[in-house]
Each structure stands twice: as C-alpha cells, then as structure tokens.
Fold this sequence. Notes:
By secondary structure, the chain is an alpha/beta fold. 31% of the residues lie in helices and 27% in strands.
Amino acid sequence: MMQKLFYITKGLENIVEKEIRESLDNPDILEKNQKYIIAETQSQLQKITSLKTVDDAHLLLDKQDFQTKPSSDQIIDNYPSEKLQNAISELSKFRKLGDCFSITVSRYKNKQADIEEIESEIERDISHKINKKFMQNSKNSKIDFRVHLEQRRILYSVRIDSRPLYFREYREKGRKGSLKPSIAAGLVEMADVKPGQKIVDNFAGAGTILCEAQLQGLEVYGGDIDRDAVKCSRENLSNISEEASNQIKRLDGRDSPHPDNCFDAAVSNIPWGKQVDLNEVELYSQTFEEYSRILKASGTLIILCDNPELARKHIEKNFPAYSLKSQKLGFLGQNPTVLIARPG
C-alpha cells in the first residue's frame, strides 16, 4: 500500500495531525512539517477524502532527497514511472478516472528548475505508461500528477480525489476575503466543541466557518452587517441544512441581537487586510465586548486577524479570566494570526 501525502496550510499541522489520528485507521505519521504530512494508513481512499482540515491528499509515488538543489534533468530522470500502474490501479478501485490527466509542478525555494521542460518530459512518460491523454487544465482532468520541488527534495505524487480536498459542494457563493474551507474547518477544530453545542460567527462573510461547523455537527448562528454577505451565507449553508441557514441574520457584530451567555464558542475571521475600511480600534474593542456578553462563561473564542497585538489587548480586557494562545498561519502570501482564548 502506498504512503499518503497530505498537503496542509502552514500553522495547521497539529490540527491536521489530530484529525488524521482520530479519523483514519492505524495511521503512522512518518513526517510532518509546515507544508505537508506523510503517513501510512490502512484506511480506504474514501475515508481519506472525508478529511476536512487537509488541503489535498495524494498517493506518494516517491520522495527523493539530494545534497544540493536538484536540476531539471535530475527531476525528469528520477520520475518513478514504474509506480504509475500501481497508483492508477489503486485509484481506479475508488473512482472513475476518465481518459485524461494533468500535471502540476510546484516549487519552494528552488527557482532554477525549468517547469515547462519538466512538465513536457514527464507528460510523455506518463502518457506512454498509462495510455491516457495529457490535458493542460487540471480543473478539467480527473487525474492530476504532482511534482513538488523543494531546495533539496522532490515529491512525486498523484491526487487521490478528482478535486482538491478543500473543495466543497456546498460552496456555490464566494466573497472577497473568504477563507479556504479547510482553513475554516481547522479554526472550528481549534474551538474543541462537541456536536450539538452552539457556535456563533458575527462576521460570517460567505458563511464558510459556519458551514464547516454545521458539517461537524454543531448548532450554528450568526450573520453579517453586509446584506450580500448574509444572502451568500444563507445560500451556502442551505446546501447543507435549510434549518441552519435560517439562523443567519443581518446584524452588527459589535451589537448583535443574541441573548447573554448563549454560545459555547465564537469563531470569526475578523475583517482584515484589504477586506474593509474600518476603525480597527473601535472594531476590536466593541467586537470583543460583544462576544464576552454572548459567550457562556465556559465558552471558547477563536479569532483570525492581522493585528494580534490590538486583538490581544481587547481580548484580555474583556476576558480577564481566560488564557490566550496564538498561532500564525500562512496562505496566499499572507500571515494572519489565530488567537485562541479559553477559560483558565
């Protein structure tokens, strides 16, 4: 059985490892870093594709380490074409593969490799071995082979599902600043709440956090001050639960209609960066005062923001009995911070 390669968001590696250990059969974590986890597991591929905090899951064809940066010729010459048939056989037992394949070449701290040359040469090798046609656009291909280049390492793999794991069927609408669903799922996991408990997001945007919370069995509430955002949230959430979508209201997150001491957790992606133009001090001050009112005394607060110093100041003021931890994330060239506040 081939090893599995899980691509992840920087900063969520511990959350992803926890989900892998809790969800898969007898997982053996062989390697974990900020970009991916390599593991062995006896789980069927169907179960692997149900993971929520993973960006993408692959069958690992081969992993090769070098003393110096590998050249384009080395990357091409070392392609593990002898393992292609086994990979295709394993995938075909799980899903229909179609007649075409695509290739994704990514690189990290290795700019000397010629991506076009690598793709062209490997494409001919794969086409010959598996008797399928090459397609330039990976969105229209059901088989995507990946070559991930690092400073002194190459990872050769093939995607398990036809689309990345962060893709969600419910997500018909998106908005500026919307989170990738796997990141939203990770934030909900950080809250460590149990199915049936209540979670709120008063800055819902496209509703991704609430959708992921609903998928985890939580009762979801919240909304947004923007009418279009409320409509977007409701439409996405209605694809999971019509009843849950009715709990999304137009509201001001700084002065909401929710009752006191109501929720077990609040998880929000506070507007940051270029999303909005607001007085940040006022936003943070009033938001955390409001969350302190509507959260239970035992409730957890999870906040994603780009001004952790200011957020920390106002969280500590409004939640004096809480302990506060932080975790930086890395995605799309940005490095926002997650603040995790719990009682004690």
